[in-house]
Amino acid sequence: EDKVVQSPLSLVVHEGDTVTLNCSYEVTNFRSLLWYKQEKKAPTFLFMLTSSGIEKKSGRLSSILDKKELFSILNITATQTGDSAVYLCAVEDWNTDKLIFGTGTRLQVFP
Amino acid sequence: GAVVSQHPSWVICKSGTSVKIECRSLDFQATTMFWYRQFPKQSLMLMATSNEGSKATYEQGVEKDKFLINHASLTLSTLTVTSAHPEDSSFYICSARDGLGGTDTQYFGPGTRLTVL
């Protein structure tokens, strides 16, 4: 059965800290891996990764995919209180276009 | 770019009534849209896949006669919760896939919070 596992489930840090969020997957028909940020409303798109070893970067956030070891990480440097959210990792099935979600990592950044 | 809207953003209705939620891709065409529901502090649960011009594909355990989906155009899908009951109260989120020569990424609408009294 396809699955996506995120760790840790929850993380509490102080502003300025750097965090690494993990996502491992076992998905038969892998097309891409996506990261989303969810605050009070629906998820907002962060990154889509399809190739191993190519880092995607947006400001203080970056992500990379390892298709051999079947995992991805999301890094956030110099965290701010506005980074507090649930970060969702999802793998898209190329056969159905469906997203298989992990349970998410809840990040809380305190001043 | 890649904006998905949902309407309404919240709705309160009486038990037994039907509620329609619209999902629109504003700046791209989406052959495939998805409908999710989310309970507090839980992850998104896929309800159905909506394909333009064809019948929706429902996930196991989702009643197709209760959650009617129509994908009439490449930019609009609707979810109608028929004869709503309090247990249908939830956060309903749609996503649209920018797959027609676009980014091949799913973008989410802002969600609709449904409360059934």
Describe this structure in words.
The complex is a heterodimer of chains A (111) and B (117). Chain A is mainly beta and 111 residues long. Chain A is 0% helix and 59% strand. Chain A is built from no helices and 11 strands. The mean pLDDT of chain A is 95. Chain B is built from no helices and 11 strands. The radius of gyration of chain B is 13 Å and the shape is globular. Chain B has 117 residues and is an all-beta fold. In chain B, the strands form 2 sheets. In chain B, strands 2, 4, 5, 6, 9, 10 and 11 form a 7-stranded mixed sheet that branches. A 4-stranded antiparallel sheet of chain B has the order 1-3-8-7, with no helix packed on it. The interface between A and B is medium-sized, with 20 and 21 residues.
Describe the secondary structure blueprint for this structure.
The complex is a heterodimer of chains A (111) and B (117).
Chain A: E1 3-7, E2 10-14, E3 19-26, E4 30-38, E5 44-49, E6 56-58, E7 61-66, E8 71-76, E9 85-93, E10 99-101, E11 105-110
Chain B: E1 4-7, E2 10-13, E3 19-25, E4 32-38, E5 45-51, E6 57-58, E7 67-73, E8 76-81, E9 90-97, E10 106-108, E11 112-116
Parallel strand pairs in B: 2-11
Antiparallel strand pairs in B: 1-3, 3-8, 4-5, 4-9, 5-6, 7-8, 9-10, 9-11
